[in-house]
Amino acid sequence: MEVEQYRREREQEFQSKQQAAMGSQGNLSAEVEQATRRQVQGMQSSQQRNRERVLAQLLGMVCNVRPQVHPNYRIAA
């Protein structure tokens, strides 16, 4: 009988520790999820702010081509 009572006490202690650990993990996952959402929102707003400038730079580089002979090119005689 004493062994059974001891086993129940240990089982209850284990269950309470397990709940405490799982509860803190749930809290951590919520914090990580919230931080991830903030980072994604920051990246999206940055993309919206810089979109036009980046497109203008890319179009400028593509449209303003300056043809040149490469310095390593040698004409074969």
Automatic annotation (TrEMBL):
Transmembrane segments: none annotated. Keywords: Hydrogen ion transport, Ion transport, Membrane, Transport. One of its GO terms (molecular function) is proton-transporting ATPase activity, rotational mechanism. Residues 16-28, 37-48 have a biased composition (Polar residues). Pfam families: V-ATPase_G. GO terms for biological process: synaptic vesicle lumen acidification. One of its GO terms (cellular component) is vacuolar proton-transporting V-type ATPase, V1 domain. Residues 1-14 have a biased composition (Basic and acidic residues). Residues 1-50 are annotated as: Disordered. Its main location: membrane. Gene3D superfamilies: 1.20.5.2950. It is found in: Endomembrane system. Subunit of the V1 complex of vacuolar(H+)-ATPase (V-ATPase), a multisubunit enzyme composed of a peripheral complex (V1) that hydrolyzes ATP and a membrane integral complex (V0) that translocates protons. V-ATPase is responsible for acidifying and maintaining the pH of intracellular compartments and in some cell types, is targeted to the plasma membrane, where it is responsible for acidifying the extracellular environment. Belongs to the V-ATPase G subunit family. V-ATPase is a heteromultimeric enzyme made up of two complexes: the ATP-hydrolytic V1 complex and the proton translocation V0 complex. The V1 complex consists of three catalytic AB heterodimers that form a heterohexamer, three peripheral stalks each consisting of EG heterodimers, one central rotor including subunits D and F, and the regulatory subunits C and H. The proton translocation complex V0 consists of the proton transport subunit a, a ring of proteolipid subunits c9c'', rotary subunit d, subunits e and f, and the accessory subunits ATP6AP1/Ac45 and ATP6AP2/PRR. This is V-type proton ATPase subunit G. It comes from Carlito syrichta (Philippine tarsier).
